Amino acid sequence: MRLSHLCSTASVFVLLLAAQAAQAQTSPAPAGADEADVEEVVVTGTRIVRRDFVATTPIITATDAALRDTGRVNVETALQQLPQFTPAQDENNNAEANGGGGRATVSLRGLGETRTLVLMDGRRLPPSNGQMVVDLNTVPMAIIDSVEVITGGASAVYGSDAIAGVVNVKTKRHFDGIQVNANYGAAFKGDGVRKDIAVTGGSDFADGRGNALVSVGYTDRGEVKSSNREFFRFGGPSGTLPQGAFAPTSGNLPSQAAVNAYFARYGAAAGVVRNTFALGFNDDGTLFSQVAPITNYRGPGVDGGFTTDTGQIIYNTTRDALLTVPQQRYSFFSKFDYEVSENLKVYAQGIYTNSIVDTQIGFTPVGANINTVPVTNPFIPADLRSLLASRPDPNARFTFNKRYMFSPRRWEEDFNTYQIVLGAGGALPVKDWTWDLYGLHDATSLVETQEDYISRTRIQQLLDAPDGGNALCAGGFNPFQGLEGEFSQACIDYVSMDLHSTTKVTSDIVEGSVQGGLFDLPAGEVRFSAVANSRRNTFNYSPDTVLVLGDLGGVGNTRPSRGSIDVWEIGGELLVPLLKDLPFAQSVNATFGLRYSDYDVSGGVWTYKAEGDWRVTPSILIRGGYDRAVRAPNITELYSAPTQVTTLIGSVPSAGDPCDTRGNVRRGANAAQVRALCIAQGIPLDLVDSYVYTAGSVGTQVSGSTELDPEKADTWTLGVVFTPQFDNPWLGRLMMSVDYYSIKLADAISTTGAQTAISKCYNLDGSNPGYDANNIYCQLIDRTFNGPGSLRIIQPFLNLGGYKTSGVDTQVDWTFDLPEMGLGDRAGQLQLSTAITYVSEFAIQQLPGDPFLDYSGTVSLPLAAIPTVPEWRALSSVRYTNGPFEAGVRWRHIAAMDDVTAVTRPASPARGVPSYDMFDLLGGWRITDDIKLNVTLSNITNEKPPVVAESPGNTQRGLYDVLGRTYLLSLQAKF
Question: Can you tell me the distance from the alpha carbon of 614 to that of 579, in angstroms, rounded to the nearest whole number?
């Protein structure tokens, strides 16, 4: 036997229990099969090679066929359909990211992408950023043999980051011949075209002592505009309008008498339009009141992207974003192994991927207090001049906000990633001991181009110019011209720019291991595995100088960041057979693991595990265990400089800023206390009673700390596997498992989410009953960084509280050979399979000593700090095969959920979402032995996603289908 790092996450049990995720096409051997009939395997979650049917840790396997059945050409969107995963970054969730990086990631159990370790053939894949998150865009589907998942802690085996589990991509092995995979698909609306082609070739050489494989591929994923889906045309509410608006400044307001007199022309009673209201510009130069009662508005309505029935005029920014981000990917993969002698084998593996992803959000807003206008500006409309003249200081500058409709904010994310592995292994002259040693180097380079961004400094120069900027750009710069007016191309070119930022991430790993048998016990041989490794990661982010200066409208400033982490580790595992061939104990085994990791910044940590399996009878296996897992702080958490990003918080009345006078909080039973807290935080007294926060998002400033300690987690699993050994056509091929899991995480490294800080500061969940402005969460809210009425959440990385999650996974695979049922020799085969996850608890503790709040069964906004964790989720299928033809139906079910505000502010929660069911049709035709055609029709009923947080145009894009009915045609030909 030998240690195989290329297949460190396979198990015989997964071959037995091919649940829906696996969609197995052939029947596994029964548990009582003769050992001579079983090929060597590696038990998932351990490095000890074994030749039996035991897997002590719950596992999910998705074959390449199952991934193809999802109708996707990217592996992360396929995996996210499994019920154990929760939404992360993907082709849809990147669309709203503020420079999201175009990454594709996965998150197990809702614990986040940084706590899910992603491997290829048992080795770490290249990290894509300072959080050491793997971008699965580097893994083309064509090279995948299967993806296997350990849904529990595995740090004792694989080290840091495996708190939620491990996702291991197994590549094709010992490939012989040439295979072409071609895929083409699109939405039924005609957009979202997906094209993917790959050519894979492999062959033995040197009389079978060696094998080489090479695969090249190209993927082209077309964009889908949000405006092409009615659901998304009315989302992203923002009060920063394309028409522009005069924003009255505290202490220098127009007189109420002047405002009354002006709006009396349009039928408004005195005092109805307040002198604190933002006033927008119609195309004819007249003014309109932006908030209720909306007065003299002459612009477009819903068809033009505006909403006027929410107490103010807002512009729906989601319509300008991309729903699905386009991608072009070129990939190369190669590996070979060669048996130098009977006791020595060398191997190498190489990956190269160029992935270009374009992300896009709405047009650029420049908020109040960013640009100010002198009263000498020649373009100020006469109506506005009359109001400005009524101010206590009529000659003072005034604040102004506007959404400039030059070009949407767009990022081109150009990733170049490579990894090289060189290794050797063989037999040792001790019993059946084997050894393995490899070195790995990888690098990811990202060039991020921000296209057509608007310089606030240059806009200010044009606003300040006595001639209206005509000397700087032809025609001058008139921001008060409403919607119909146009800027000259010269002025657009003057204020617009492309920015370029670079990120470089590298990894260097050297690892050696040895494994084999030690001695015999009455129940079998005691086996061991020992491993030692050294790992170094580096990160260097260089933002464009303009980003450092913070000169862009709609984008916060950022800082360069760099850092490195060095770690060395040593560990071992021991397999101890305890009982064998006894009544009700066909076999009982125990596995123990221990690992010590020494980090140059975080110090030394121990991880360990104790697992067991008890095969009661050939049909019943009981398994379970305990794992202590850790996650050391990554480079971003340690070293990131203060950087501003944007986070969704929803909109009033049920969400948004609690100080907004239109919201439920300012109108509730504790409105007086909330008002006082708003004043204490910096909202001026003369604005507080008319204050509105019109954006649906908030700026957050994130920063790192070298004082962080590693996270620690305890994972318990207990399950039973039922594989009946009956010579019965009904039960002989039934396979079922039920596994309970419990994960408790302490010292969680995180930032306090924007919604959490708001809820806890304003006592929305009862945690600040005194409405104390010195409350720790209130200290994270900054309302004065950019003038009165601005809003920012400070988010340093800290060791906060913890997580507790538990639940039950159930998997069933039931196959019927219909001829055995007496239905005729050509009746075919029927396979029923399902994977169900029930989450009994998903609780978060914000700070040590705080109570845990249970968020299971709640839904939140995309990529929010509190993840969406359905209480019930299932993926089921029925597949019929007859000769060269097959057909099937897949059913995805997501239970109804409460809105997350049912926990964060139970007194005024937003409406939840109903249950969601979606069906796919599958078909296949094996034209010849070497050519097969498959088709997947996804979401055949065109099920629409539910609205999340009562915010139109917002949903959980990684959980619900947002494209509507789609298709994918797949052709596989082998020569």
Answer: 9
The token duo for 105 is 């990631």
Q: pLDDT for 310-326, tens place per residue? A: 678 989 888 888 999 99
Amino acid at 629: A
Locus of tokens 């070119």 = 493
Average pLDDT over residues 244-270: 93
Structural contact between residues 232 and 319, judged by C-beta atoms closer than 8 angstroms: yes
How far apart are alpha carbons 432 and 813 in whole angstroms?
Answer: 36
Question: Is 94's pLDDT higher than 80?
Answer: no
% of the chain with per-residue pLDDT over 90: 63
Q: Could you tell me which of 321, 322, 329, 376 has the C-alpha nearest to residue 352?
A: 329
Instruction: Identify which of 905, 845, 918, 822 has the alpha carbon closest to the alpha carbon of residue 875.
Output: 918
pLDDT at 95 over 60: no
Dihedral (C-alpha) 672, 674, 677, 679: value to the nearest 10 degrees? -70
* In contact, 462 and 474? CB cutoff 8 Å: no
Residues sharing a CB contact under 8 Å with residue 540, sequence separation 6 or more, in sequence order: 503, 504, 505, 561, 562
Every domain of the chain with CATH number 2.40.170 lies at 5-171+502-633+710-750+799-974
Looking at the DSSP assignment, which residues form a beta bridge with residue 622? 614, 720
Do residues 265 and 272 make contact, with C-beta atoms less than 8 angstroms apart? no
Q: Which helix (H) or strand (E) holds 758?
A: helix 754-761
Runs of H (alpha helix) within 478-517: 489-495
* Closest alpha carbon to 411 in 106, 134, 193, 96: 96
Residue found by looking up tokens 């990917």 in the block: 329
3-state secondary structure of 577: strand
Positive or negative torsion for Cα 42, 48, 50, 54: negative
Place of tokens 């402005």: 773
Helix (H, G, I), strand (E, B) or coil at 535: strand
Count of beta carbons in the 10 Å neighbourhood of residue 59: 29
Strand partners, 199: 180, 216
For residue 408, what pLDDT band results from cuts at 50, 70 and 90? confident
Asked if the 5-171+502-633+710-750+799-974 domain carries CATH number 2.40.170, the reply is yes
Residue 17, pLDDT > 70, answer no
Q: Which residues pair with 915 in a beta bridge?
A: none
Q: Report the Cα 525 to chain-centroid distance in Å.
A: 44
- Other CB atoms closer than 10 Å to residue 486's CB: what's the count? 12
Band (849; pLDDT cuts 50, 70, 90):
confident
Closest CA to 448 of 492, 494, 409, 403: 409
CA 274 to each of CA 216, 375, 398, 690: distance values in angstroms, whole numbers, following the listed order: 65, 22, 17, 8
Those residues whose C-beta lies under 8 Å from the C-beta of residue 952, and which sit 6 or more positions away, are 234, 235, 237, 316
pLDDT at res. 39: 31
247: phi then psi, degrees, rounded to nearest 5: -110, 105
Residue owning tokens 């629409």 = 944
- Rounded to two decimals, the pTM is 0.86
Task: With H, G, I as helix, E, B as strand and everything else as coil, classify residue 105.
Answer: coil
What 3-state DSSP class applies to 268?
coil
Top pLDDT among 15 and 499 is at 499
Q: What is the mean pLDDT of residues 902-924?
A: 93
In contact, 357 and 330? CB cutoff 8 Å: no
Give me the sign of the Cα torsion angle 289, 293, 296, 301: positive
The 3-state DSSP class for residue 934 equals strand
Q: DSSP string spanning 855-876?
A: -TTEE-STT-SS--B-SEEEEE
What pLDDT is stored for residue 785 in this prediction? 67
Per-residue pLDDT tens for 670-709? 999 999 999 999 888 888 988 888 777 788 888 899 999 9
The single-letter code of the amino acid at 434 is T
Q: Judge residue 633's burial from the number of C-beta atoms within 10 Å of its C-beta, 0-12 exposed, 13-18 middle, 19 or more buried.
A: buried
Beta strands 224-225 and 322-324, pairing class: antiparallel
- pLDDT at position 97: 45
Mean pLDDT, the chain, whole residue set: 88
